[in-house]
Amino acid sequence: MNTIIQEEEFRYIESGKGQPLIILHGLMGGLSNFKGVMDYFPEKGYQIIIPELPVYSLPVLNTSVKSLSEFLLKFVDFRDLKNFILLGNSLGGHVGLLFSRNHPELVRGLVITGSSGLYENNMGDGYPKRGDYDYIKKKSEAVFYDSKIATKEIVDEVFESVNDRNKLVRTLALAKSAIRHNMANDLPKMKTPTAIIWGRQDTVTPPNVAEEFNNLLPDSNLYWIDKCGHAPMMEHPNDFNRILQHWLDNRKL
Question: Is the pTM of this model over 0.90?
């Protein structure tokens, strides 16, 4: 992966020149989740920028989808970015939706994959059992269709997060904020062209969620990836890139 750039309060990675494409990671998702996109799109005339969202560093009372959207606005102002495409997975999709609702003049196109904002089956029953590595391993594997994608490194990272009290309280605050901040009433008013790329076997945000996003958003296209869970850009990077490229070309973005 590219080196993380640190400027003022912002940490991000960047690659390529051209049309800016800003990527928003999920709650448990690191910057490396988008390696496939990062390797492919700079060659196609896109400037890929992945800011590190302050998921674990905001004051607990201010840890919300709204505050992450406000952080993104500060970042794009700092970098003087306009007319960009936003791509978000899981919680990152939700942040992208809220940002696009509030600042439609800045967003040329939006891509959501496994996004919260309407519904999510958040780690299911009794999340999280701290200290129980096997439980966390099973939950991490359930995010993917192919459980092997949940490498030891990914499971270790999730395990460390739920066993760190500071990270845990912020994780739960964000999960609650995502459920509270339902966007069903906002979506029909949003004109931003949106690609919805979804795993057919997503158990966190099931396929009917993608269909509901597609029904509610006025200018959206829905694409499916089969044998795929909650993170299509990790499980099927080539299919994900092909679909995204097709949509960008069709929409001339």
Answer: yes
